[in-house]
TrEMBL record:
Protein name: tRNA-2-methylthio-N(6)-dimethylallyladenosine synthase
GO molecular function: 4 iron, 4 sulfur cluster binding; metal ion binding; tRNA-2-methylthio-N(6)-dimethylallyladenosine(37) synthase activity
Catalytic reaction annotation: N(6)-dimethylallyladenosine(37) in tRNA + (sulfur carrier)-SH + AH2 + S-adenosyl-L-methionine = 2-thio-N(6)-dimethylallyladenosine(37) in tRNA + (sulfur carrier)-H + 5'-deoxyadenosine + L-methionine + A + H(+); 2-thio-N(6)-dimethylallyladenosine(37) in tRNA + S-adenosyl-L-methionine = 2-methylsulfanyl-N(6)-dimethylallyladenosine(37) in tRNA + S-adenosyl-L-homocysteine + H(+); N(6)-dimethylallyladenosine(37) in tRNA + (sulfur carrier)-SH + AH2 + 2 S-adenosyl-L-methionine = 2-methylsulfanyl-N(6)-dimethylallyladenosine(37) in tRNA + (sulfur carrier)-H + 5'-deoxyadenosine + L-methionine + A + S-adenosyl-L-homocysteine + 2 H(+)
Function per UniProt: Catalyzes the methylthiolation of N6-(dimethylallyl)adenosine (i(6)A), leading to the formation of 2-methylthio-N6-(dimethylallyl)adenosine (ms(2)i(6)A) at position 37 in tRNAs that read codons beginning with uridine.
Pfam families referenced in this protein's UniProt entry, alphabetically: Radical_SAM, TRAM, UPF0004
Gene name of this polypeptide: miaB
Signal peptide: none
Its EC number(s): 2.8.4.3
Organism in which the protein naturally occurs: Paracoccus haematequi
Length: 443
């Protein structure tokens, strides 16, 4: 316990967060854990007493990006030998001791399931490399979230890990098996966030809609959790990501119909429109099953905006497989989507499979992205003239301007000189830009 008469000296912590939204949440929790050790966040890396790189292994060349950033830290470490440098997250889990071997300037390496031990590592009371999967729940060992005002939108991790073992994905190996947080702890953290000014919570998990937890009256599914969260006074908006098609239960689909706080936005990755490639990916669903699921979701919530993920050039992909993907995209009509050229990940089943010619994969990616961009533009233009709720998150660059998120997660710029961060207002959309909307306060 910290001696209140002799509080720890204030030190500065710089955190660089790579990749996914779960890493944003993890970085916040690591900052809170280090806050108990006297660290405060800084945006100036050069002035930091500790630099923490919280990595993600999903995107292409994740390890190379880490080592490049570490290389840029060498002059700073040479100038200030007492500077502590740590690597956290999924690349830390995957690379482990290799990081320190290649970059001796690194003082500690901590995986995503052990970052609750980060303070002990900094104090020298725990090993400098921790990448195991401990039996204890890290959330039980993290400090209570600090009682300070928060931004109006926040992330809340409810589930971690994945049991799906898609052939291209490292998550089961870096985050471990699926684990769901208990109902009472999720609700407690959500209430705490709302008490500190949060009006929108995004529930996070590698397979978030696979969440299930023990309640006082039996096992709960994800739809029931959303219904319980919606009863928290002051929680005006609920979102969740990332989902798997096979875990879209009837109760969850009904929640999209019944719960006004659940926003009309769903990220539901399909990855490919080819059944042959879906089998090779071990996705355990077909294109037709995905399309039927989309029909059911839209029947429950007709105005829902759908987004997805696509991998182009997966090993063995043919022109026909690519055409099947384009056909599925054309049939669904996505509001936006993330699309990437396949990048092999060491340790995954697809790692050693023959790759599609790079030029061919590039061409297919361009074709897919052109179609997705067309659909995104159409979705945004369809918002013009509509009256939407917008939650203001920050001031704009121009005097009197505010920036917020619409119900459909679009960034919206609004002239609102009397508004404040955290206001949830009705806005009439008047213009669609390339990746945002412009609106006017509705009368």
């Amino acid at each position: 316990m910290t001696d209140q008469a002799n509080p720890p000296a204030v030190k500065k912590l710089f955190i660089k967060t790579y990749g996914c939204q779960m890493n944003v949440y993890d970085s916040q929790r690591m900052a809170e854990a280090m806050g108990a050790e006297g660290y405060v966040l800084t945006e100036d890396q050069a002035q930091a007493d500790m630099v923490l790189l919280n990595t993600c292994h999903i995107r292409e060349k994740a390890a190379e990006k880490l080592y490049s950033d570490l290389g840029r830290l060498k002059p700073l470490k040479a100038e200030r030998p007492d500077l502590k440098i740590g690597v956290a997250g999924c690349v830390a889990q995957a690379e482990g001791e290799e990081i320190v071997r290649r970059m001796p300037l690194v003082d500690l390496v901590v995986g995503p399931q052990t970052y609750h031990r980060l303070p002990a590592m900094v104090r020298g009371e725990a090993p400098a490399i921790l990448t195991d999967f401990p039996s204890e729940d890290k959330f039980d060992h993290l400090p209570q979230r600090r009682a300070t005002r928060r931004a109006p939108a926040a992330f809340l991790t409810v589930q971690e890990g994945c049991d799906k073992f898609c052939a291209f994905c490292v998550v089961p190996y870096t985050r471990g098996a699926e684990v769901s947080r208990p109902v009472d702890r999720i609700l407690r953290e959500a209430r705490d966030l709302v008490e500190r000014g949060v009006r929108e919570i995004t529930l996070l998990g590698q397979n978030v809609n696979g969440w299930h937890g023990a309640g006082t009256d039996g096992d709960w599914g994800f739809g029931r959790l959303i219904r319980a969260l919606a009863r928290i006074p002051g929680l005006d908006r609920i979102r969740y990501t990332t989902s798997h098609p096979n875990d879209m239960s009837d109760d969850l689909i009904d929640a999209h119909r019944d719960i006004p706080q659940l926003m009309p936005y769903l990220h539901l990755p399909v990855q490919s429109g080819s059944d042959r490639i879906l089998r090779a990916m071990n996705r355990k669903h077909t294109a037709a099953e995905y399309l039927r699921l989309i029909d059911r979701i839209r029947a429950a919530r007709p105005d829902i905006l759908l987004t997805s993920d696509f991998i182009v050039g997966f090993p063995g992909e043919t022109d026909q497989d690519h055409a099947d993907t384009l056909r599925l995209v054309a049939e669904v009509g996505f509001g936006t989507a993330f699309s990437f050229k396949y990048s092999p990940r060491p340790g995954t089943p697809a790692y050693d499979r023959p790759e599609v010619d790079g030029a061919v994969a590039d061409q297919r990616l361009q074709e897919l992205q052109a179609l997705l961009t067309k659909q995104q533009k159409a979705a945004q233009e369809g918002m013009v003239g509509r009256r939407l709720g917008v939650l203001f998150e920050k001031p704009g660059r121009q005097a009197g301007q505010m920036i917020g998120k619409s119900d459909y997660l679009h960034s919206v710029f609004v002239e609102a000189p009397d508004a404040q961060v955290g206001d949830l207002v009705q806005v009439r959309i008047v213009e669609s830009a390339s990746n945002s909307l412009r609106g006017e306060l509705a009368a």
